[in-house]
Amino acid sequence: MRRSLVVGLILLVVAVLFVGGPSLLFSPSTDEITPEEDDGPEPTIVSLEGSDSGFWPYLNARETHENRSPLNVIVRGEPDEIVTLLAEHGDGDWEETDHDHFDTDALLTGNETTEMDPGVDPDEVNTTLDDLRPIQPTDIPWSDADGTTRYAYIDPGPGEEATWTTETLQLEDGEYYGYRYHIRAYESPNPDDEWVVMQTHSEHFDWFTLRHRVDGVEAAQSRLEADLMAIPGVTVEEDVQRIFLDNSGPSDADGWATKVDLTAMALLPIGLGLAARANRQGHTEPRKRVAAGDLRERTQQRLEGQLNAADRARLEAATARLEARHLILAGTILAIVLGVRIMGIALDRFAGFMTVHMIAATLYPAIAIGLPIATYAIASGLESRLDAALAAAGSLAVAIWLDYALVGVDVLPIDVIVQRFLVVFALGLIAAGAARRATRNSRINGLLVVGLGVWVVVLVGTLLGYL
């Protein structure tokens, strides 16, 4: 019993150091991710100049006025054309447009029916035609997105009641089961009021909670803002501005929204590529490589200079206990966690017959059931309870951070840190309870029961929304 308590306490320390420590060190905004809730007075409606209708500057998962998801991009213009601008991309289809000097259709087909302006140099016309190739309306290849419905509170104007409405469309750039930029767009309820309001954020899919985790809104807002500013004909000084909506607080929102005015532009011809864009590429210096032999030699020299005889003896004893099963256990845990991430992205991209829910139902059992079963099976061949516990817990902690590195996440909310801390602790207890010293009297022991209990409670509680 005493030995089991020692193993449990050491696991707690390891979980805090390997999960909680790095999370708090490298995620300075973790305390800002959890959204604020406010069931305050009657919501303030934001109305745009020249528009009777307006909107409350937040979205919600239910029809209640809680300060959840801040709206952060407003586009003035014909809603259908704005949607087309973002949702449809160049696919080789051409539409005839007016031109000062030539008939586009005639020049593209080679059947010239309109006489050239004698003042135009034929070489200039050919150069222009090289630039007239079908490109996407905006720089970012936005595509239709799957996502949970969020409600916007829209006020049609005087004489009508404000109502809750669902999104006009959802768009994404990235991977559903990886990292993506996500847009929810809502259009004006009045045909005469030309505006579309959006909420954009960056997020990643969390396989331990089966939900998307919002990483922030500021980077996504700036990205969409730059994409709209890149539209040929948009003048930054005249058409783009930041307006204060006073909806700061949730995530890293600062209360300022981007407003882009496209009312004076003909949006559809833009999709034909009437202006060429310059490619901007960053240049990075090549990294200086260090030979593996030199690195090993330097490491050995540092260790020899810092370790005394007792330290070397402990290190040799620990190394002597290391066996193939420790490595197999670590490799299996890494393969399951990272394999689920990679398989989710691959199935979403290439298995068109599977819905996102089908993919989740297929792969989640590998996390919820496969990890503890594989851990128990491999750890049952290990002698030491502590060695098995540290191997399993440490490997899962490393797998979690490699998974975050794979999708590019560097900010975690506090509730995720707590959940990861608990699953690392639970898997370590399961491994300790499977070791031969723990099962000398019975396969069912306190370490295993507590480990499985924590594992089940944490995952079920997460799915039910308690964690």
Task: Describe the model.
With 467 residues, the protein is of the alpha+beta class. It has 2 domains: 2-31 and 308-463, no CATH class; 51-93 and 134-270, no CATH class. 45% of the residues lie in helices and 15% in strands. It has 14 helices and 13 strands. It has helices at residues 2-26, 79-87, 104-109, 122-131, 218-229, 236-239, 267-270, 292-306, 309-321, 324-350, 356-379, 385-407, 414-434, 446-463, and strands at residues 46-47, 54-60, 69-70, 73-76, 143-144, 151-155, 163-165, 169-174, 179-187, 195-206, 211-216, 240-244, 256-261. Strands 4, 5, 8, 9, 10, 11, 12 and 13 form an 8-stranded mixed sheet that branches. Strands 1, 2, 3, 6 and 7 form a 5-stranded antiparallel sheet that branches. Helix 11 (356-379) packs parallel to helix 13 (414-434) and helix 12 packs antiparallel against helix 13. The radius of gyration is 29 Å and the shape is elongated. The two termini are 30 Å apart. Residues 21-39, 89-136 and 266-290 have low confidence and may be disordered.
